[in-house]
Amino acid sequence: MPLVELCNVGKSYGGGATRTEVLRDIHLEIEKGEFVAVVGYSGAGKTTLMSLIAGLLRPDTGEVKLNGKVVEGPGPDRGVIFQNYSLLPWLTVYENVYLAVDQIFGSWSTEKKREHTERYIAMVKLTEAREKKPAQLSGGMRQRVSVARALAMDPEVLLMDEPFGALDALTRATLQDEIARIWRATRKTVLLITNDVDEGILLADRIVPLSKGPRATLGPGITVDLERPRDRKALNHDPRFKEIRGAVIGYLLGPGAGPKAGESAPDAARSAEAVA
User: Residues in domain ABC transporter (predicted)?
Assistant: First the structure.
């Protein structure tokens, strides 16, 4: 049984003439310990998809299940890392992480909660910055705090909503490497939402493309059977990397883009292949 399962999920916003169907016929299964990346267009509904799994939204049709049970709302079994960090500005690095630990593991002794907090701060290499507040940190360091806070909750599933989107290229690459390192150490089940195909291939076990919205749906999953740890420079010369990249982009530019005016869906797919 998959850890996460979405069965025929659909979600719309608005009502009447203003009703917009954002997602339709979403079917997705994620196994325990698997790292899955959903890659798609900006505005296609990737954040809506993540919010449905997080329990922040309820589907209009279908079901979202975790461990075989229907998701009714948010819970500590799902840790969420947002693009905008979502840290409490008046708390230090240590206090932001400790607050989450205290809420989830309230029955623990103060010493055990302290040690647990320190462990995850060290995991993201922020021990020296533990007494700093968010305003004193760079964007990359703030996102590290978000990662530490989510992991310290020991969730069954880690949901990451374009966590590197607001960062510069160098910081983004550094954090991608850190996430890969942490995943190898923890083997958490991870769902990464991104619009960067190369990022998905670098990090994930499987990529699932999301078609252009409205009425976006998931395309066929593509296994990323590349040896870990992955070297971003070496990947550029790897024939399998190019094959996976071509398959994802081919779907996004072809069937996932929808037909052009006066063109059927198969014709649109052939046009995308010509572009690729």
Answer: 4-237
Q: What is the distance between the alpha carbons of residues 152 and 120, in angstroms, rounded to a whole number?
A: 6
Q: Report the alpha-carbon distance of residue 41 to residue 53 in Å, rounded.
A: 19
Q: How many residues does the chain have?
A: 276
pLDDT digits (tens, 9 = 90+) for 200-245: 999 999 999 999 989 999 999 999 999 999 999 999 899 999 999 9
Instruction: Look at residue 276 in the predicted model and tell me its pLDDT.
Output: 35
Residue ranges per domain, the chain?
A: 4-77+155-275, 88-154
Mean pLDDT of 42-53: 93
Tell me the per-residue pLDDT of 124-134, one tens digit each, with 9 for 90 and over: 999 999 999 99
Question: What are the pLDDT digits (tens) for 137-172?
Answer: 999 999 999 999 999 999 999 999 998 887 888 888
Residue-averaged pLDDT of the chain: 90
* CATH architecture for residues 4-77+155-275: 3-Layer(aba) Sandwich (3.40)
